[in-house]
Structures are given as structure tokens and as C-alpha cells.
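Posted in: Protein Modeling Q&A

I'm a second-year student putting together a small comparison for a lab meeting, and my supervisor asked me to include a predicted structure for Tripartite tricarboxylate transporter substrate-binding protein. I've never done this before, so apologies if this is the wrong subforum. The sequence is pasted below exactly as I got it from our records. If anyone can share the C-alpha cell output, I'd also love a short note on what stands out.
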Amino acid sequence: MHGLLRWARSVGAGLGLLAMAAAPALGQVSFAGKTIEWIVPFSQGGGSDTWARFNAPFLSRHLPGNPEIEIVNEPGGGGTRGPNTFASQARPDGLTVLGTSGSTQFPYLLGDLRVRYDYKDWEVAMVAPTGGVIYVSPQTGVDGPATIERLRDQTLVFASQGPTSLDLVPMLAFRLLGLDVSYVFGYTGRGDGLIAMERGEVSIDYQTTASYLRNVLPMVEAGEAVPLMSWGVLDENGEMQRDPTFPDLPIVEEVYEMLYGAPPSGADYEAYRAFNIAGFAAQKMVILPQNTPPEIVETWRQAWRDVFEDPEYRANVGAVLGAYEQVTGRAAEALFIEGTTIDPTARQRILDMLANEYAVRLSD
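Accepted answer (user: helix_wrangler)
Welcome! Here is the predicted structure, written out as C-alpha cells:
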């Protein structure tokens, strides 16, 4: 089991004992005849969109009353437009949920002035860790991780949503590895980065696991993309290990050692590691609005429990979303706290880097 999830389950179990006596009744909650809007603050085709569209039919099956679920893509603002809309307009009736990712967490963690939402106001229904894969165009002359050194003499091009989005993780990885990367900012989602790669407009890209499995793997099989490395997962000792979905790919730490002959360390590595954990270990969340009644929150959590046990879901989730364990209830609450909290030293280092290297200032 993923180490952070094991920790979350242990914390959640302790908290759960305190809450059992106060568990709300669920029988009166029904969404029959209703349509639920699931806001995804990114464009179609990316990992968050793939994740939501895979889960939606199973939620419709297991929420009481079998409501329709409509995926509403609302990209923009480096991932902040959708959650800003949700925070200001969503009613606490269980009929609007928000799907977050690292690209909504990071602006919040960094104090981005565009943020008009506060995670502390929200209720978490589920948390889904994920991974991701960095890949390049075969025109780079690289044919796999063993020849990655060929990239060090090239200027690579990367399509980015912005330096405060989840793209901060690859930016920190490229910096750590010493790669020369030119960033084209302003894309509205990782799906757009994928299109840019397909068109030959960029030479390096990454996709989160769901999008990689769905969209990039066929490109790899056709010889149109070359996978290089994954982000990895934390084990029970807090050490980075290979992603179980991509066991044949090295992680960033291994690639660094291949290039430099020693494991990574120092301030640049600590900054990368901090945002990798915040961006992927607790990356995707389903959020309910502030002041949602406890019985509605628990109805959503029970629906997720039922989804996780659905035989059809269990048979297909790994191929679509990867080999990661999703959680709800108290374990999700523990990961929710972990994923929306950051060490002040790491935060300040990133703010300094953004200001000095990209002229990005997030606060007054």
C-alpha cells in the first residue's frame, strides 16, 4: 500500500472512532430526478477530465436516486477559475461538486492573488493519488531513459498552464536535472499540452496517469512518443519508489543519479520533493461546498465506498486510472490536510524562484 495512504488510514481510523457515535442518517437523502454538476477546472482530454468522466457513471449508479452527472469543464486562471466559481456559486445541497488537482492546490499553497477560495471551508468526499510520466518527441534523438543524456545539449519546448499550476513539478524536475527547457505559458490544461505535442509544437511533455494511459500510450506504441521517467510514490518510510503503474520507468531521483553519479540532495531537490508530494500523493479530490449538511457529506462518502467495491469498477479502474488506492472518509480527510499544507521554507524558496526567474510575484 502507498505509504502516505497507510498513514492516512491509521490517522483516519483514530478519528473515525470519535465520529462513529455521531454518524448521520442517510435514508432521507435522495438525488432522484436531479442533475449533479461536477466542475473540472481544466480542458477536456487531460488527466482530471479523464478521471472525472471515468468515475461519473459509477457515482450515478451508487448515489441514491441515480442522478445524472454532468462534467462541466471550466479551465482558466492557471487552474483557479473553476474553484473560484465553485466557492462563490455552489450551493450546499450536494448537487455541485468540484474536482481539484495539484493545479488548484498549488496556487492556494503559494498565496496566488487569483485565488478566491479556501480549502479550509470545504468538505472532502474522496481523495485519489495519482502519478505521471514525462515523455519526449522521438525527434529529440532519445529512445528511452538510457539515452536521456542526449537532451542536455538541446533546448526543449514545454507547453505549460503556468508556473503556479501542477506544471511546477516538472519545472522543478527539469531544473534539478539540468535540462534546458523553454516554457510556453498560457495553455488551459494538460490536454492542450498533449495536442501541442501531437502537432510537433513542443518536444517534452508530461501527462498524469489517466491521460497517459488513455492518450499517450498509443503514441508510444506507434513510435510517436518516448517515455523517460515517472514521479514515483512514497513508501511507508517516506522514501520515493517506482510508480506501480509504471514499474519499468525510472523515477526522477534515479534519472538524476544516472546523470550525476549520486542521489539528489540540497535545496533544489527538497523543493521538488515537497511539491511532488503535495501535487501527486493527494492530487485529485472531490470537494463539497462550505456548510454542506453532514448527512449529504456522508451520502457522498458512502457512494464512493460503494463505487470502490463495485466489481465493474474494480475490474477497469487500474487500466484507466492506474494502480493507486483511492480513499474516502477519515483517511481522505487526513490526506486532504496533507495535500493543502506546505512547509514555509519550501514555499518561500519557490516564491523566490518564481520572482527571480519568471518575474512571477504572487503576493504584495
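A couple of things worth pointing out for your meeting: The two ends are 42 Å apart (CA to CA). Residues 17-22 have pLDDT under 50 and may be disordered.
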